[in-house]
Every structure is written in structure tokens, then in C-alpha cells.
Amino acid sequence: MNFDDFRGHVYLIDDDPSICRSLAFTLSSSNYSVQTFDSPQAFLKDSLPISPAVILLDMRMPGMTGTELQNTLLQSGRETPIIFISGESQPSEIINAMKHGAIDFLLKPFSMESLMTAIENGLNKDRARQQQLVRVMDIRQRFSRLTEKEQEICRWMIKGYGNKEIAELNGSAPSTVKLHRSRVLDKMGCETLPELIELSIDDKRRIFEVFG
């Protein structure tokens, strides 16, 4: 496979060797890298996190079902998008899988076109997730460069407090607060307060772990 044509990584988890061989060959021929696992347990033991990637997951397997693996991954914080494949499934299983974030649920036999579409959707989602993680790490690094006083003032700034209000809250002179605000913007790489606020709400769940 030409690395320049690499489209993404596929973890293929299915206890049917013939399906694994067939899908792995087809996907590899389409410039995806593929790792096959004959059980969820093998995946948990031997897989390494790669991005962008998707998990192509059979529903019915001995020892652990596809939805049980999905729940295990969610609990561990591993967010690689999942595409379920199944020969037979109950409506409740499909609903549960989709409710917990599955990209798609394909019933066997499915067309390669529908599979490729689902894989590309999953890879796009994983790329966006990875880009957001990089962005959050960058913002955390910028925030860590602030002094303790500047971090405190940064939090007040993004909550909409002006110089006078912040001065009253922390006992500083308004002129001192103004100086700190300028340093906060500079170290955070923002020219204006709206830019700083935009950083703080870009991903509420993660950014507010930084800004408090």
C-alpha cells in the first residue's frame, strides 16, 4: 500500500475467519490498513490506539458480544468509532448500539458500497475527534503558562467580568487587573476577549476542565 494513498485504519473483529480474510483483502486493496481479531478479548489485549481509525465489529461472538465490547471501550475512554456488522440482531440490540454512539449497523449480507460509506463516516468523525484533542492540548499548554493570578483573572474574564468587578473580587487595583488581562490575552494567543471566550467554549466538556 502506498502511504500517500493511506485512507485510515480498520480494526476488524469477527470470529468467522472467512469473513475476516475477505473483508481484510478488500479493505487493504482499497488503501486501508487492517488488523483482524477473532474475539473482543483479543482486541482488548493486542490492539494499539491508532488514528484515524474505525472498529468493524461483529455482534455475535463467544465470550463477549459486540455491545459488551462497546460498553467496555466507552468505560475505558476509548472513543474509536464503531460500525456493527451482524447476521441477525434484535431491534433492541441495534437501538442500544446506536444509542451508545455506533456509526452504523450493517446486517449481513451488506454491500461494499454501504460498508465503505460507513467506514469513511467513521474515519471523518475520528479525524475530527483527534483534531479536537490536539486543540485542547494546545489550549491546556497555553493556560499552563499563565501565573496563578493570571489563571484566576482568565477565569473571571471568560465569565464576562470587567476590570472593576475583577478588582473588587480579588482585591487588586483596576490598573493591575488591566495589566493582567493584557498578559492573559497575549499568553493565550488571543487579540480580543471574544477570541478567548471562543476558546473556552469550543468544547465545553474538555475546555472547562482547564478554565474551571
Automatic annotation (TrEMBL):
Q: Which CDD domains match?
A: LuxR_C_like
4-aspartylphosphate occurs at D58
Could you tell me which residue ranges the HTH luxR-type domain spans? 139-204
| InterPro entries per record | CheY-like_superfamily, Sig_transdc_resp-reg_C-effctor, Sig_transdc_resp-reg_receiver, Tscrpt_reg_LuxR_C, WH-like_DNA-bd_sf
Keyword terms, alphabetized: DNA-binding, Phosphoprotein, Transcription, Transcription regulation
PROSITE patterns attached to this UniProt entry: HTH_LUXR_2, RESPONSE_REGULATORY
**Which intervals hold domain Response regulatory?**
9-123
Q: Does Phosphoprotein count among this protein's keywords?
A: yes
Top-rank taxon of the source lineage equals Bacteria
Q: Pfam families from the xrefs? A: GerE, Response_reg
Name of this protein: Response regulator
